[in-house]
Amino acid sequence: MKNLLLAFCCAAVLSCGSCGKRIAKVDSIDIVPKPASVQSLDGVFELTSGTKIVLLSEDSTLAYSANSLNDMLRDAFGKPLRYAYASEPLSEAINLCLGDLAPEEYTLSITPEEVKITGGSPAGVFYGVQTLRQLLPTSVLQGEKAGIIELPVVEIADKPHFAYRGGMLDVCRHFFSVDDVKRYIDILAMHKLNRFHWHLTEDQGWRIEIKKYPELTKVGAWRDRCSLEPPADPNLKDSVPYGGFYTQEEIKDVVRYANERFITVIPEIEMPGHAMAALASYNYLGCKGEGYEVPSIWGVKADVYCAGKDSTFQFIEGVLDEVIELFPSEYIHIGGDECPKDRWKECQLCQQRIKTEKLKDEFELQSYFVKRIEKYLNDKGRKLIGWDEILEGGLSQTASVMSWRGAAGGIEAAKKGNNVVMTPNSHCYLDYYQTDKIDQEPKAIGGFLPLEKVYSLDPYEGLNADEQKYILGVQGNLWTEFISTLDHAEYMALPRIAAIAEVGWSYDNKDDFDGFKKRVTSLRRLYDAAGYNYGKHAFPADSTAVATVEK
Ligand code: ACM
Ligand code: ZN
């Protein structure tokens, strides 16, 4: 019933007096993220089953945009629209072209005669198609038949502010299937996000097949229990081990899928901490060399990679060799966060390394570790990015920092001239509660991060104009200690990822929160049509809404 009401407030279905065809149209132009410029004029373009999709370039990557446009309309017309190639835009057509714009920039022009999407690259055209999707009537989004879809006459010119607009998913604390991951990528793509940060290794599970080290997925991908909460009885185990991993073929498939949607997949291979699954697989990697298991309880673990053994580095290099083959991303994320120094303090080999490398302490040992890996990556033509702990003990001039313990690490890095992705837990941790009525929510890790707070993120705060140049962009992070299904993941990510997307895309002309909320209320039509679960807290009609995730 709620969906039905929503459909009426944002769109209408009428009948044409002369031809009797069902006409569907939207009532207002509400786009998320907010475009740089929207000029709305009188009139409509009548989209019918006879409208062609015309490609004005033979660039094969335009075809994906054309196909996704057709997928959006197929049910409305009961058949796909016809394609054509042309050298000039055609009338009574949706023309997809490349033009002299920045790569992710696009214009969307709807006149009574034609629709024209021009992108600076195929990515720009894809973003234009995403905008057009938000101009479709609710009934069409929901797959109902339409004789005529009336698109409003409008001129939209749009481009992103930040080059890096990301979403992270932790598939280690709980495992998500390839289909789940693709659905998550679809969610990122519809918000014009362009980076998928895939958190692939952790204490609680190693999720990527590495052919040189098969124990990582034979042993490291599995644990005794699904739930990561401490059980009342410590001997309690699930009847079957919990876990999973992606084969290299599956990883290639996901990378290809994301690439079609103009999303770069950045793999995260955690080191030196959060490595229990690796240590359980190959005991020699830890300082003590024995007694490890894949933990079934969440939290930071004292056992980490031994920084004193060369065999640790040989192992990591072997892993990275295969990672580099699988992921074309210029950035490889090496984690770097939450590495307790207890074991290193007690380990003769780690202490020996401190001496021979003339390091001051274990923090400088961590810095040695990260710099050594950075050199390895740089020699292979890749760049290192890590959580803000990589600042501790000294940061190389070329590493990039993902600021998570607030913005302080990012500010410090930018002031040093290092590139930064802003993802402070104060604004970007999508695993935090989105309401203070937590008794009505599925259990979360804590925190309180309502939509409005996410929207208030200023990635440039504390930085002068020169320093701002080092801010690559923003990212929303979804850790999954308490999230075991994609349905729940969607509930946590949506609509907060829309606020991240708008900060990243529309920084220059951001709205006030009420304006954003109005547009997100329209975007919600797409969530409903796609069957995505989402938090209802920010929507006025649902102010009393409670969680729809099974507790
Ligand atoms: C983190 O949340 N430990 C990066
Ligand atoms: Zn050691």
The coarse overall form would be elongated
- How many helices? 19
CATH class of the largest domain: Alpha Beta
Distance between the termini: 23 Å
Radius of gyration, in angstroms, nearest whole number: 25 Å
Which CATH architecture of the largest domain is right? Answer: Alpha-Beta Barrel
Instruction: Kindly report the oligomeric state of this protein.
Output: single chain
Low-confidence spans: 1-10
CATH topology of the largest domain: TIM Barrel
> Which molecules are bound besides the chains?
acetamide, zinc ion
What is the CATH superfamily of the largest domain? Answer: Glycosidases
Structural class: alpha/beta
Provide the residue-averaged pLDDT: 94
Beta-strand residue fraction:
15-25%
Domains, number = 2
- Count all strands and give the number: 21
